[in-house]
Amino acid sequence: MEKETPPRPYFLTVLRISLALFLTLSSVAILYTTARNYQSAQSLAEQSLESTALALSSSAESALRRGGSGANAEVREILSDRVVAYALIADEGGGILFHTNPRRVGSILSEEEKGPLWGSQKTSGRRIILGTGLCAYEFSYPLHRADGVTEWLRLVLHTTPADRIVSDARRMWWVGTGVLVLLWTVGILFERVLTRSLRLRSELEEKRQLALIGQMTAVLAHEIRNALGSIKGYAQWVDEKLESPDPRKAGLAAVLQGTERIESLVQELLLFSRDETFKLECLDPVPLLHESVQSAASSWLGKVELEKEPGTLVKADGEKLRRVFVNGIQNAIQAMGEEGTLRVSVGRDGRWIQVLMEDTGPGIPDGEFPRLFTPFHTTKTDGTGLGLAYSKKVVEGMGGRISLRNRDQERGAVLSIQLPRTGDS
After folding, report:
1. Structural contact between residues 358 and 342, judged by C-beta atoms closer than 8 angstroms
2. DSSP 120-142
3. pLDDT reading at 380 higher than 70
4. How many Cα atoms within 13 Å fall on the side-chain side of residue 14?
5. Are residues 311 and 344 in contact, defined by beta-carbon separation less than 8 angstroms?
6. In terms of pTM, does the model score above 0.70?
7. Is 95 exposed, middle or buried (0-12, 13-18, 19+ CB in 10 A)?
8. What is the enclosing helix (H) or strand (E) of 358?
9. Of 130, 167, 208, 416, whose CB count within 10 A is highest?
């Protein structure tokens, strides 16, 4: 059966970048389309007002050109359209010759009423505010009568129909904003769900591999230990039979030393491969750290510093946690060599109690980080690659977290062990 490959960090990074790019481009497209539609609506509204005014003005001009006794009545009928707020015809001096309000006929337009474009031979339109506070559209149109006299038609139109078009287009901004919010919400939720799904899949695959490795190592360790017992027993029996001056005793001593090394490896294999059961209890990790330092660093020539905060109770299995501490201290000492400084600190970190082990060794090469907690991976010539893997298995089994990184400003590495706070800590 082909083994599934768990998702790698760069795959998730590419996924996030692609999703962010898609959402950004979609957002730009929606905003651009909405803006264009709004501009088109504004332009359409202005064109609608201008076209209406031009049509009414052309009809009025045609009626005046035809002349006759009913010309004014025809013009009044044309300009009685409900879209017209008012209309007037004035001569060059501003004298009102016709007005939809008959009481204004014969009066003179003020300079303010004429406006800046009065007397122009070109049609012109602009938006104004009526005295009632309503918006309107003012349109000036030169009338060329049949007798060659030029008069000016002033149309003031209600803009409500045109403004309704713009208002409807303005609502599209709210619709577009809602779509954007929905799009980003769905995108973020999709990223979270997919990332979590891939992470769970990766964790399940890792557990499956660890379970398979555990089964294999348990069988191998059992067979190796049986054969090793025979070898060790025979070597000890022969060693007891030989006299002290016999040069073969040195070879037997090397055999016994090798068997002890293999026994230690087999013990680590069995310890890693077995299914762990945890006896969780409320305990203080500081006494365990003291015991671990005495056990792992009693003959070390370097310096050990222990810093602690009061009230750092955790919920953990004491014996298994002590093994994790011993393994971390041994790794730090082996990285530093004969001398150095190991700083161990215990403190609070939110809902966690954090144990930090900082050494002054050479640090961790960048290429090693992805494989640090992988079983059987080690950079030591005499290492088994099970120490960190076992520590990760145990710490996570107790509901904690473990990580290894380089120090920020100085040489060395930092092992971080986080365990859930409990009690009154």
Report:
1. yes
2. -SS-EEEEEE-TTS-EEEEEEEE
3. no
4. 5
5. no
6. no
7. middle
8. strand 352-358
9. 416
CATH of the domain at 322: 3.30.565.10
pLDDT above 50 (res 3): no
* Number of compact structural domains in the chain: 1
Written as one letter, the residue type at 180 is: L
136 forms beta bridges with: 128, 158
Distances in Å between the Cα of 191 and the Cα atoms of 19, 184, 421 are 8, 10, 31
Retrieve residue 381's tokens: 């010539």
Helices 248-273 and 160-241 cross at an angle (nearest 10°) of: 150
Residue 395 lies in a domain: yes
Q: How far apart are CA 414 and CA 408, in angstroms?
A: 9
Q: CA–CA separation, 313 vs 234, rounded Å?
A: 50
Supply 125's token pair. Answer: 């339109």
User: Side chain identity at 341, as an amino acid letter?
Assistant: T
- What is the 8-class DSSP label of residue 18? H
* Sheet (strand 352-358) strand order: 303-308, 341-349, 352-358, 413-420, 401-406
CB atoms within 10 A of CB 116: 9
- Terminal C-alpha separation, the chain: 49
10 Å CB burial of residue 310 (0-12, 13-18, 19+) is exposed
How many whole angstroms separate alpha carbon 322 and alpha carbon 330? Answer: 12
Give tens-digit pLDDT for 402-412. 988 898 888 88
The lowest-confidence range among 168-177, 241-250, 300-309 is: 241-250
Please indicate, yes or no, if residue 302 is contained in any of the structural domains.
yes
Helix 9-66 / helix 160-241 crossing angle, nearest 10 deg: 170
Of 418, 13, 419, 1, nearest in space to 205 by CA: 1
Q: And the tokens for 55?
A: 């049509």
Q: Does any domain span residue 318?
A: yes
Domain that holds residue 342: 281-420
pLDDT band at 6 (very low <50, low <70, confident <90, very high): very low
The verdict on residue 321 lying in a domain is: yes
CA dist 47 to 37, 38, 44, 53, 173, Å? 15, 14, 5, 10, 22
The predicted-structure confidence for 244-299, as pLDDT tens digits, reads as follows 777 777 887 888 777 877 777 777 666 666 666 778 888 888 899 999 888 888 88
